[in-house]
């Protein structure tokens, strides 16, 4: 890779890591913030829920805006908005202001998160999609693991405000580097002249409502509570409305993308993989805390092998997939992931920590081996003008899979006879999701001697 491309990749990944670290750091501060603001855990939970809903609702707008205003301009705008929200959150005076400023952060992250995929895919091109998506996977793997560790360390040594103010310092560096390194967008022949306002009003809130319903499932402990049923019904109605609306010319996201088998398989695999991975990310710390009595920081450190496995596997698998295709690597990775999570179903209170740590390491390796090739194959099947839409669909379904995984974890743990049987149930859930990934792998592109030709844009017209 040339130096300019490497510089762009590094700067974009720094911005992507910023949002992931901030959201996962804040997650470990829930108890601390509830005590400091003298409020309930359900109320303080809206600092995370509000952030997530803002991210989800903003993603469809990014699909349109990236071609209308250019990737670099939108990236800088997202960083500025995220920095403003971080600074304000660090200066919040009560729980209401903190929730509001976290929403501002989420709006900025909703611009940045899909842009990471869009900018990397456009910079790399189809021939290098696998290796660049593999580098993106390092951020996706390490971010959720490093965040709780960093959050626990900061809370142990400094004020909770430092979690947000540190993001400001890192974000300023990312902003300066972005202005200097990321190249200006080349002219796009057909920039969208009008925003699909109806589509935006249906799609963004629809996905946000479904994610809210899933997050409420974990809190209420049942799918039957009105706090779950009401937003779920609203979300489904909005998404059905969008499906009808998408038949009109120039919808926000063209649903005919799903006619392509490779695209449909790729986004489904990433959604299922996200569900299984987040189930493990939430269940393993609970196991270390409840079965072995470790604190938050120690449990976070014991989670490191999971992120380390993904960080090792994804760059290697992504690079290999550019030459060998996605199918064989993804199949091998799914088999390793299934075997690893199956091993976690056998652990108990007396199991030495080394064994679940090793299983988590191989789980990360397996997940990385199917995630990077899958993302790379997705971008090899899309024509350039459809990259933004494909990235948004991928990110939204991955968010949905993660939210579903977390909701099912909470539901299984709360309805089980005891904590250990609940955690084993969660690991069985992850086994099932990874088996579905394995079943879908044959739909991915196999070995190719040359880069796979992109799908013609006319197929979506």
Automatic annotation (TrEMBL):
The keyword rRNA-binding appears for this protein: no
Swiss-Prot/TrEMBL keywords: Cell membrane, Membrane, Transmembrane, Transmembrane helix, Transport
Domain Major facilitator superfamily (MFS) profile intervals: 8-449
Keyword Cell membrane assigned: yes
Membrane-topology descriptor: Multi-pass membrane protein
InterPro entries given in the database record: EmrB-like, MFS, MFS_dom, MFS_trans_sf
Location within or outside the cell: Cell membrane
Transmembrane domains' residue ranges: 42-62, 74-93, 99-120, 132-156, 162-183, 195-214, 226-244, 265-288, 294-317, 329-348, 354-372, 393-413, 425-444
Record-linked PANTHER family: MAJOR FACILITATOR SUPERFAMILY MULTIDRUG TRANSPORTER MFSC (PTHR42718)
Recorded family membership: Belongs to the major facilitator superfamily. EmrB family.
Protein name, per record: MDR family MFS transporter
């Amino acid at each position: 890779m040339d130096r300019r491309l490497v510089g762009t990749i590094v700067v974009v990944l720094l911005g992507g890591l910023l949002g992931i670290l901030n959201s996962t750091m804040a997650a470990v501060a829930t108890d601390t913030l509830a005590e400091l603001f003298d409020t309930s855990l359900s109320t303080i939970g809206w600092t995370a829920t509000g952030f997530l809903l803002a991210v989800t609702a903003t993603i469809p707008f990014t699909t349109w805006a990236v071609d209308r205003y250019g990737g670099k301009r939108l990236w800088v705008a997202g960083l500025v908005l995220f920095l403003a929200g971080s600074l304000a959150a660090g200066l919040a005076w009560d729980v209401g202001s903190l929730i509001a400023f976290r929403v501002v952060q989420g709006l900025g992250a909703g611009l940045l998160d899909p842009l990471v995929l869009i900018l990397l895919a456009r910079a790399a091109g189809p021939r290098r999609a696998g290796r660049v998506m593999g580098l993106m996977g390092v951020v996706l793997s390490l971010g959720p693991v490093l965040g709780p560790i960093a959050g626990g360390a900061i809370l142990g040594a400094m004020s909770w405000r430092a979690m947000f103010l540190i993001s400001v310092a890192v974000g300023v560096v990312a902003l300066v580097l972005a202005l200097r390194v990321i190249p200006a967008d080349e002219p796009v022949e057909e920039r969208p002249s009008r925003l699909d306002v109806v589509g935006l009003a249906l799609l963004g809130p629809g996905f946000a409502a479904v994610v809210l319903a899933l997050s409420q499932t974990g809190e209420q402990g049942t799918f039957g509570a009105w706090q779950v049923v009401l937003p779920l019904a609203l979300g489904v109605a909005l998404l059905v409305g969008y499906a009808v609306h998408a038949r009109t010319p120039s919808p926000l996201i063209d649903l005919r993308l799903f006619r392509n088998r490779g695209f449909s398989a790729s986004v489904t695999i990433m959604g299922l993989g996200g569900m299984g991975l987040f189930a493990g990310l939430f269940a393993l710390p609970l196991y270390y805390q409840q079965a072995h009595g470790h604190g938050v920081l120690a449990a976070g450190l014991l989670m490191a092998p999971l992120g380390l496995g993904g960080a090792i596997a994804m760059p290697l698998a992504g690079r290999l997939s550019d030459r060998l295709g996605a199918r064989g690597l993804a199949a091998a990775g799914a088999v390793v992931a299934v075997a690893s999570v199956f091993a976690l179903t056998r652990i108990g209170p007396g199991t030495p920590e080394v064994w679940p740590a090793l299983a988590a390491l191989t789980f990360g390796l397996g997940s990385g081996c199917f995630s990077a090739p899958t993302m790379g194959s997705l971008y090899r099947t899309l024509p350039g003008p459809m990259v933004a839409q494909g990235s948004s669909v991928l990110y939204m379904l991955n968010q949905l899979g993660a939210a579903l995984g977390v909701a099912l974890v909470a539901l299984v743990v709360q309805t089980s006879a005891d904590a250990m049987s609940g955690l084993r149930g969660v690991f069985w859930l992850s086994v099932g999701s990874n088996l579905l990934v394995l079943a879908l792998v044959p739909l991915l592109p196999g070995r190719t001697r040359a880069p796979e030709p992109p799908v013609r844009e006319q197929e979506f017209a």
